[in-house]
Design goal:
about 170 residues, alpha+beta, 6-stranded mixed β-sheet, 3 helices, about 45% strand
Length: about 170
């Protein structure tokens, strides 16, 4: 196999794109955790982003999704952490890729006195437009959860174990 400067440049460019997509997903998840509405918005394709998370209504544009995120997730007393791992990213063209991620999600909602731990599997599609990568489509399913209710004395009782409820927060 002959290695040329052009082939090395192409391989380096693809590695840079791979890292840019990983950084994009990290920025999205961190934006969710830190309640940074503008950061979350800026990771999703400006027109026609598809967001279809199990337990939530589907969205075909980022703005309605961002509004729901701000209303539900950015309230005082809501604490979330998204830890994504096991990424598998495959390029399907020079400006498009698909990815799979496993997510370890924790949420504390003080008003409901609930603690949720959930496994989530993401399937994403990424596109490069205007010289940068965007999340064009993101779908999730929830293979398992544990939801606890915490009483005034701080004792937790498991109210869901295994299959998650049909709607998130239910």
């Amino acid at each position: 196999m002959t290695v040329t400067l052009e082939s090395l440049a192409a391989r380096i460019a693809q590695l840079e794109d791979l890292e840019a997509i990983r950084q994009l997903k990290a920025r999205y998840l961190r934006g969710c955790d830190l309640k940074q509405v503008d950061v979350v918005r800026d990771t999703l394709l400006p027109k026609g982003a598809v967001i279809a998370y199990e337990g939530f209504p589907p969205f075909d544009d980022r703005e309605p999704f961002v509004e729901i995120f701000a209303a539900m997730g950015c309230q005082p007393g809501v604490y979330d952490i998204h830890h994504a791992t096991n990424s598998e990213i495959t390029f399907t063209g020079p400006d498009e890729a698909v990815g799979k991620w496993s997510l370890n999600f924790h949420s504390i909602i003080l008003a409901a006195r609930s603690v949720t731990h959930m496994g989530v599997e993401y399937e994403d599609r990424y596109v490069r437009e205007g010289g940068r990568w965007w999340i064009a489509e993101t779908r999730s399913r929830r293979p398992f959860c544990r939801i606890e209710q915490v009483d005034e004395a701080g004792h937790a009782v498991t109210i869901a174990l295994g299959d998650p409820p049909a709607a998130y927060g239910a």
